[in-house]
Amino acid sequence: AAPRPGSFRAGELALAEVRRKHNTTLKLLCRLAAEAVLSSPGGVLPHRDIIGQLPGQVLRASGGARLLLRRPSLEEYVLLMPRGPTIAYPKDISALLMMMDIHPGDTVLETGSGSGAMSLFLSRAVGPKGRVLSYEIRDDHHSLAKKNYRHWRSAWEIGHMDEWPDNVEFILKDISTAAADMKSVTLDAVVLDMLKPQCALPVVHPSLKQGGVCAVYLANITQVIDLLDRIRSCKLPFLCERIIEVTHRSWSVLPA
């Protein structure tokens, strides 16, 4: 029988949630294939038992564990996908997107690509009429980011009516040597996720439109100070508007 509209299909991503001790949840991500099985601490579940089911169903694994099956959100995908470098976490990406005030149709520059987390969120933010230029200096990171992006897009097209936009151009190049590339580009926003973003600023600022936002993702305050010193010493036309740290606190609400 043909699968019902909205039901899981072979080739798309499925997320299984398994309840564990101390009110914790284990999340398992898999790409559905007719002959494959999903392995969990509570037993295995053949993918053929998932294909054709609607998301939100609870299925039992061979060992008796109850697995809640659904499609992963983009946040869950980037947290569970293969990664090389440490990713920009969704809570931080959300704050960056708001600070840059990105709109559908915008052209945004990203350095570096990393594992592709930021690229995916930027892709969704700029939409099918927008464009994301993602520069990466390391070949292994460049390849992984492209792979994770293609993996998400291909699975999305199987499980959804609309197509995920093919709007990210992954470029294997040191951004500090890309001045010639930037001459033909007008950027609505720039996001820098690299060890020394001060090296990229002289290259990208001529292409950033007047009033455009450059957001920088840094790990510690020492890097922030180095960046501000470089902006000041080189007299670059940037105004530091905000320096923030994003915190995320989870709550557990249980019966007394």
Description:
A five-stranded parallel β-sheet has the order 9-8-7-10-11, covered by helices on one side. The longest helix is centred in the middle third of the chain and has 21 residues, at 139-159. Helix 3 runs parallel beside helix 4 (117-126). Strand 5 (58-60) and strand 6 (66-70) form a beta hairpin. It has helices spanning 47-50, 74-80, 90-100, 117-126, 139-159, 179-182, 201-204, 221-233, and strands spanning 13-19, 25-31, 37-40, 43-46, 58-60, 66-70, 107-111, 131-136, 168-172, 187-192, 208-216. The protein is built from eight helices and eleven strands. The chain is elongated, with a radius of gyration of 21 Å. 29% of the residues lie in helices and 24% in strands. It has 256 residues and is α/β, with parallel strands linked by helices. It folds into two domains: 12-72, Vcp-like ATPase, Chain A, domain 2, CATH 3.10.330; 76-234, Rossmann fold, CATH 3.40.50. InterPro entries: SAM-dependent_MTases_sf, TR61B_FKBP-like, TRM61_C, tRNA_MeTrfase_Gcd14. GO terms for molecular function: tRNA (adenine(58)-N1)-methyltransferase activity.
Describe, in short, the structure shown.
The chain has 256 residues and is of the alpha/beta class.
